[in-house]
Amino acid sequence: MATFNPGNIANMSSKKRSGSSDDQWDQFAAAKKHHHSLPPPHAEDPAAALANARHEFGEHGGVNMSIEASATFTVMEPETMRRMFTGELGPDRDFFIYSRHFNPTVLNLGRLMAALEGTEAAYCTASGMSAVSSVLLQLCSSGGHVVASKTLYGGTHTLLAHFLPRACNITTSFVDIGDHEMVRREIVQGRTNVLYFESMSNPTLTVANVPELCRIAHDKGVTVVVDNTFAPMVVSPARLGADVVLHSMSKFISGGADLIAGAVCGPASLVNSMMDTHQGSLMLLGPTMNPKVAFELAGRLPHLGLRMKEHCHRAMVYATRMKKLGLKVIYPGLEEHPDHALLKSMANKEYGYGGLLCVDMETEEKANRLMNVLQNCSQFGLMAVSLGYYETLMSCSGSSTSSELTEEEKASAGISPGLVRMSIGFNGTLEQKWSQFEKALSRMQDSSSFNNKM
């Protein structure tokens, strides 16, 4: 099947199922459907780039796009189907075959994600892990090699460390992503396919030097893949040199803790290769996003910037106050954080330093006590994995989202047994929630569970 440029799908003409009609209604419908043109490829503010993206109107002129819930699509003439399967007619001209391949609603969300991250194209998937695995399987063949940060989401680490070597003969060298000489040494030109890291690591909140890491990788002809789940709007890896940007859209982008979704943002050539009918990982493995999910997410993207600013603002205020109380706080917005200056130099202006912070309680027992009183005594937050919800979510990473790692791997990644990861929400007022935090600490002191080493 011939390819098309998903990045240019914003320039699609109105649907022509059998032939071209020149009546005034078709012209009006086409003009209304394409209210905006493509955003500039390197717009500095991701919110501005989103606002510049084409607005997709509904089938009957609704301000929201329609949900194309069909699994398969009809044609008016038999010859049209043949031309679709040869690639002569495709989504760039509004011809669709089957929703596992391309779906109009999902494609529209992909166009918005490309605008958000400043990439040529994007494709949205059924989950964040399906985005991760599909990209790696597309970029690496049997015998392939990945250099990856040793501090990653537990599921990604396990995929790289255990599943891919067993199932696909793809091996990974794990490195300290802040040790650039180590990264350079582990990348073997002609053998290494991918340099993989998170813009802000899960859960330790170390910040990757995206421009420098891209220079190192590109000097050796290696593709840079960055998971930006922790820092949408805050950091734009593609604008800093990354080739591919991944998201678990289930987190900040969704904001409601009610949807599972992922995204691959990158060159149109990559998206095309992943959708190839003979060799494409997305096409053949089938991690298809439901168009109803795509519709929901498209409606949440316009206020992602506002939400991120409030997440980040509260995280900064709480981190500062927690530090003053004597807690061991990890937050890139604090000047003493080793990556503070780096993040400040890379971050998009006015979006802050991220919506997550960590409190290191040193032991799992103390971590559990803290979370227990924060949820069950003061209602500061909820004990739950994931992030980006309007309520604060708390988990002890070593025994939850990073539990797949061995004790040695957790120690190497800097994950303390008592590390409490907090995704700071924006529900209620800032002072109301802070009062609840202080109430919890007071409760711990009263029960003699709180000590100065916290």
TrEMBL record:
Q: Please give a single GO biological process term from the UniProt record.
A: transsulfuration
Q: Which UniProt keywords apply?
A: Pyridoxal phosphate
Q: Give the sites modified to N6-(pyridoxal phosphate)lysine.
A: K251
What sections of the sequence does the record tag as coiled-coil?
none
Query: Span of the secretion signal?
Result: none
What cofactor does its activity depend on?
Answer: pyridoxal 5'-phosphate
Its cellular-component GO annotations read:
cytoplasm
Q: Which ranges are annotated Polar residues under compositional bias?
A: 1-13
The UniProt family comment states: Belongs to the trans-sulfuration enzymes family.
Q: What is this protein called?
A: Methionine gamma-lyase
List the top taxonomic levels of the source. Answer: Eukaryota, Viridiplantae, Streptophyta, Embryophyta, Tracheophyta
